[in-house]
């Protein structure tokens, strides 16, 4: 990039240097008025609009311009000598128009990030833990109590187990193993009691 030879706050000495592309004057006024940028490096930095070129620059404005210069130098967009010259002119600038000219051919902010990725497919999401069916828990408890009650809770274990397995199939709940355990123990206890009762009846009939 070729940089004008005049210093901030003074106009170009060559009258032809006042002419921009197409013969349009690129210098507004005389006697230290700020230049109007007509280069090819893109629009001025946000906050340095056309209506604010003549506004006096603050310390914060100068620091923002220097930050842009540092970023451009770190990315290899200018040489050390040019960077130092621009920084010196930034600190010596009187108006925001002069600062805009110094950074007009540099990126004015970070590179935009790519668009956010859509929702994560359900395939990669953790599977929700299904709720354990309460009747399946009751069936397993009744099956375990058969050892203490000598099989008296076997029938409730069977009833609760069948009901639980039906609800698990329809609702997608967990606890099928508990229901199956209660069913097995319950049927064994019920079958044992049935066998005992049958043997008692046979014995009563044969003795009577």
Structure description:
- This protein is mostly helical and 208 residues long.
- Helix content is 50%, strand content 0%.
- The protein has 6 helices and no strands.
- It has helices at 59-74, 80-92, 96-103, 134-149, 154-171, 176-207.
- Helix 4 (134-149) runs antiparallel to helix 5.
- It is rod-shaped.
Q: What keywords describe this structure?
A:
mainly alpha; disordered N terminus; 208 residues
Task: Note the topology.
Elements: H1 59-74, H2 80-92, H3 96-103, H4 134-149, H5 154-171, H6 176-207
Helix pairs in contact: 1-2, 1-3, 4-5, 4-6, 5-6
Order of helices and strands: HHHHHH
Task: Specify the helix fraction band.
Answer: 40-55%
Number of strands: 0
How far apart are the first and last residues' alpha carbons, in Å?
123 Å
Q: Provide the gyration radius in Å.
A: 44 Å
Helical region count? 6
Strand content: under 5%
Spans where pLDDT lies below 50 across 5 or more residues: 1-50
Major sheet: none
């Amino acid at each position: 990039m070729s940089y004008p030879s005049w210093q901030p706050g003074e106009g170009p000495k060559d009258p032809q240097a006042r002419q921009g592309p197409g013969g349009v004057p690129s210098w507004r006024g005389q006697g230290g008025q700020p230049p109007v940028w007509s280069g090819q490096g893109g629009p001025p930095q946000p906050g340095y609009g056309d209506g604010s070129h003549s506004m006096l620059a603050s310390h914060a404005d100068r620091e923002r311009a220097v930050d842009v210069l540092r970023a451009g130098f770190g990315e290899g967009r200018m040489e050390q000598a040019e960077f130092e010259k621009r920084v010196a002119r930034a600190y010596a600038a009187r108006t925001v128009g002069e600062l805009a000219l110094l950074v007009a051919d540099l990126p004015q902010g970070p590179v935009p990030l790519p668009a956010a990725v859509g929702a994560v497919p359900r395939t990669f999401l953790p599977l929700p833990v299904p709720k354990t069916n309460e009747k399946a828990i009751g069936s397993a408890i009744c099956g375990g109590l058969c050892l203490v009650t000598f099989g008296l809770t076997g029938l409730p274990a069977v009833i609760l187990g069948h009901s639980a397995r039906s609800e698990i199939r329809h609702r997608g709940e967990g606890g099928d193993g508990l229901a199956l355990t209660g069913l097995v123990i319950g049927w064994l206890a019920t079958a044992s009691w049935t066998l005992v009762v049958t043997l008692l009846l046979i014995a009563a009939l044969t003795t009577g």
